Amino acid sequence: MGFRTLDCSSREGDCILIAPNAKVKRDPNRYKCRREPMPQTNWNILARNSKTRIACPIGCEQDADLSVIQKKPIDNKNCQKYYTYGKYRDHKEGEWYLWLTEPCVAKLTTHCRFNDIPYHQQNNNTTTNNIDEESALKIAEKEQRRGRKLKKVA
Questions:
Q1: Where do the DUF7808 domain residues begin and end (predicted)?
Q2: pTM attached to this predicted model
Q3: In 3-state terms, what secondary structure has residue 134?
């Protein structure tokens, strides 16, 4: 597995891709981040003031999938998965992107997982980790509703 770290912790809007163990060495000039519109949803109160997000290609091989994203610092309450950072696959480009938006400033690490042991076979063909952005937003919305229900019960 090739680890990829997107370090956006030094300055807001300035990110560096770090891929020290990549099988194919990456030209950092080819992997430039881009500013794009932040999808707006009613449930995402953390990013309600964010009009844009920074999205960075991470250079996984074409047949790779992404694994879990880890963030540093881990206790940063401004960085919440699905709300202020995440991942998506740009199918036109065939590229995975990590993204983050204000108020999140962090270092995100993931790894490219290759298809030598497909993820869906390990999990009895029930799920895959190849999640697109629309699906991630739906998951986050369900988690938000579930959180409100739990607060009412407590």
A1: 28-122
A2: 0.64
A3: helix
Q: State how far the Cα of 113 lies from the Cα of 64, in Å rounded to an integer.
A: 5
Distance, in Å, from the CA atom of 101 to the CA atom of 115, rounded to the nearest integer, reads 30
* Planar angle of CA 64, 67, 70, nearest 5 degrees: 140
Tokens of 90: 């740009």
In tens, the pLDDT along 66-98 reads: 776 788 888 888 888 888 888 888 888 888 888
Structural domain boundaries in the chain: 2-153
pLDDT in tens, 28-41: 667 788 889 988 77
Closest to 80 in 3D by CA, of 130, 140, 7: 140
